[in-house]
Structure formats: C-alpha cells, structure tokens
Amino acid sequence: MINNTTIEICIGNIDDAVKVASYPIDRIELNSALELGGLSPSLETIRTLKKTIAVPLCCMCRPRGGDFCYSEREYETMLMDAEAMLKAGADGIVFGFLHKDRTIDVERTGTMTDLVHSYQKEAVFHKAFDETEDLDRSTRELISCHVDRILTSGRAVYPEILQGCKILHDLHEKYQKQIAFLPGGGVRIENIRDVLQISGCGQVHMTSKRQSKGGYLELDEVQLQEMLRQIETMKE
C-alpha cells in the first residue's frame, strides 16, 4: 500500500508476476492471454507463484475471449476451474456472468460467489459490469449475491475514464458499506492521480503493460515505477 491506496496489478504471465511482487503492491490479478482481455491462468502457474511470492493472487476465471454469456457447459466448467484454482491457492476469483440482454446473471453469479466464499476467499466481478446499462441496478444485484468487489471504469473507455470515475464516486458514496469498487481500465501515468481523487475509492487496478518482442503483453517496469511514484507523491 502506498499513501493509503490499495494497489492491484494485472499480470499475464509468471515471470512478470514475480517481478511485480517486489514492488509495494497489495494484490495481483493473475491472468493468461492479456491480448484477449485476460483468460484463466494455469493451475501450475498459481501453485508455483504461491510458493514463490507473498502477494495475494486474485485469479481470472474466463475460458475464452469475447462476451460474457456462457453456455451451460462453459459455465459448469468455469465452476470447476474456479474450485481447482482455489484449491491451488488462489486468494480470490475474478469472473463475470451476463445474460444476452447484458444484465447480470444473478443466479450464476450467486453460485460462483458462494463457491468462492466457501473457501473464505474473495469474489470479484470484473468489467463485464461495465457492459450493463444500469450500473446502479447491477450494483444492487451484485450486493444481493454477496460479491466482495467490482472492477469497473464506470462504463468509460480510455481516454474518458475520468468521466466514469465521477460515476464511480457516486456509486462508492452510496454503496461503500456493502461492496467495494476497484477503478480500472484505462489507468495511465497521466491520469492515475485523478482516477484516485475523483473516484474516492481508495484503490486502483492497473496493468502497466507493453507489447513484447514475442508478441504478447508484458510488464513495463519503467511505467509501473512512474505510476507508483505518482501515487506516492499525490499529497505534495
């Protein structure tokens, strides 16, 4: 934690997770295939990291790219994937279920949350939330499912994330005693202070990524260091 700010870094491979764990961060959101928006990591990646680093790992549970309307077979597999990740040491599961009309699938969300909580871990609803039309209603539905945290940009896309942060501020003020909001999606060096100040959520999700020579998205440590410096010097 820096400056009373909880910092979560989104990572797409094992080497970058080890690197980022040396910084003063609070959580890693562990994925594979960030190029596809983030998919489920392998079980061996989770097991190895739990033996190697102390930073909590919230693991993405997403079997494919594209939308968040899953078939029954996909859904059942996701539940099995989530349980396997929890048994492997995941400290939280990041997921999202929507209906075709882009409303929250409350039944599936509740089932997944109950599973995660049965292991005393965190249930995190990801940016599928931003695809819903009524964020207030969606928040209330996720509260009813006992979800712990929502990763969201307030429906904004880069570079307009600060407009979304105004929405997040209102949601946070209204529901902060019932659910946590994690601003993320379009957080950059030039806006990270404003994201934190406008949203008022006290936490931030960022990727600090660049295109690697190998064609995948990797950690940019120079960018990460500058973003952490921006947080550290916010009160100056």
Summarize the structure.
With 236 residues, the chain is of the alpha/beta class.
Chain-wise SSE layout:
Layout (H helix, E strand, L loop, with lengths): L5 E6 L2 H7 L6 E4 L12 H10 L4 E4 L11 H17 L3 E4 L10 H13 L3 E4 L9 H10 L4 E4 L8 H15 L4 E4 L8 H8 L3 E4 L2 E3 L5 E3 L1 H12 L4
Parallel strand pairs: 1-2, 1-8, 2-3, 3-4, 4-5, 5-6, 6-7
Antiparallel strand pairs: 9-10
Helix pairs in contact: 3-4, 6-7
Count of DSSP strands: 10
Q: Structural class of the secondary elements?
A: alpha/beta
User: Rg from C-alpha positions?
Assistant: 17 Å
The helix tally amounts to: 8
Stated plainly, the CATH topology is called TIM Barrel
Number of structurally distinct domains: 1
**Distance N terminus to C terminus?**
17 Å
Low-confidence stretches: none
Mean pLDDT: 96
> Which second-level CATH architecture applies?
Alpha-Beta Barrel
Largest sheet: 8 strands, parallel
Q: Which strand order spans the largest sheet, edge to edge or round the barrel?
A: 7-6-5-4-3-2-1-8
Oligomeric state of this protein = single chain
Tell me the series of helices and strands, N- to C-terminal: EHEHEHEHEHEHEHEEEH
Look at the structure and give the CATH class.
Alpha Beta
Helix content: 25-40%
The shape is: globular
Provide keyphrases for this structure.
eight-stranded parallel sheet, about 240 residues, single chain, TIM Barrel, alpha/beta, two-stranded antiparallel ribbon
